[in-house]
Amino acid sequence: MKTSAFLIIAALACASCGKSPEAVKPAVSEAPKAATVSETRLDAAISDALTPPPPAPATSDELADEAKAILAQYPGKTAADLLNVPEVNAPLRNLLGKLAQDKPLQARINNSVDLAAQIKGLDGAARLDLDIKGYDQARTARMLQAVLSEDPKQLVSFLVGEIGEATPDISYGGLDRAPNGVSIVPAPAAAPTPPKTEQPD
């Protein structure tokens, strides 16, 4: 599609050259110039067509296959353990680095926590306490896919989904921690700043 568009633009450019208000020159003198322009643009179009496109982001099927392979490679490890294996830890570090720079996505997590805290009846600031050691294989696979994508949006969608799933259990159900490991707890108060003491001269 990109190559076709380029060729159409090239054709229009060549056509506009022939509509100059100046006197029309003999066809013989124009032919070499037209051929040169055409060959140059054609070479560029061919080069563009033969240049491989950048690698596409991993599809959900590819991520699912990667997660499945990791689960098979480490059958005895919990979801928490898997975050520390090399195949997962490196993408996790990259992912968290990206998330740290994305304030709107951070706000989305915070807003979900605040809403769950209000439904639970907590006053003041709250925080997410997530225990993933008890994840079953299906939930672990979904977590791994979010991490392996290295896409902060996928990680935030996973976390917000977990909070939303847990909210009925930790509010109306009265549980301190939902079956999916989510707990919303009061945020610890910031430690007061000690007063400055003047040093004697």
Description of the structure:
The structure is a single chain. Strands 1-2 form a two-stranded antiparallel ribbon. The longest helix has 24 residues, at 27-50. 61% of the residues lie in helices and 5% in strands. Helix 5 (86-100) crosses helix 7 (137-149). The N and C termini lie far apart (78 Å). It is mainly α. The chain has 2 domains: 1-14 and 30-50, no CATH class; 60-186, no CATH class. The chain has 8 helices and 2 strands, in the order ααααααβααβ.
How is the secondary structure organized here?
Elements: H1 2-17, H2 27-50, H3 60-73, H4 79-82, H5 86-100, H6 103-120, E1 126-130, H7 137-149, H8 152-170, E2 182-186
Helix pairs in contact: 1-2, 3-7, 5-7, 6-8, 7-8
Quick tags:
single chain, mainly alpha
In short:
This protein has helices spanning 2-17, 27-50, 60-73, 79-82, 86-100, 103-120, 137-149, 152-170, and strands at residues 126-130, 182-186. It has 201 residues and is mainly alpha-helical.
Largest sheet: 2 strands, antiparallel
As for the number of domains, it is 2
Share of helical residues: 55-70%
| Overall morphology | extended
The assigned structural class equals mainly alpha
